[in-house]
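DM from R.C. (forwarded with permission)

"hey, sorry to bug you on a friday — could you get me a structure for this? deadline for the figure draft is monday and I only need the backbone to look sensible"
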Amino acid sequence: MTDSPWFWAYLFGTAALIALFFAGGKFGTRQAQIEREYQARTRAAQQLNGQAPSVQLSTPERTLVTLQPLWYLLAVVTVIGWICFWRSHRAATSSPLSSVSSSDASSHHVDSGQ
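My reply, with the result:
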């Protein structure tokens, strides 16, 4: 089962989704702080030029940079990994004759060599 690359894609995708879930709250707070620093500099530059500040400040719930594309990518990788792993595992377990016939062929090959 662990020989399949699809198993590992599914396993790591699931672990990444779990890690992203737990890091999401901290990310929003930190990203909003970084964006507000940039937005404050932009507003200060606008005020120096005699313009009214037009930049809205970010909040943890509303940031310019989000984790949404990463969520989608990891979800797609996880789903594809699971489907491909399930299909390959099911094909391997539903066809016991293929493993028997290959072991018979290898033992037959050894017998004919003597």
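R.C.: lifesaver. The longest helix spans residues 5-48.
me: no worries. Residues 5-93 form one domain.
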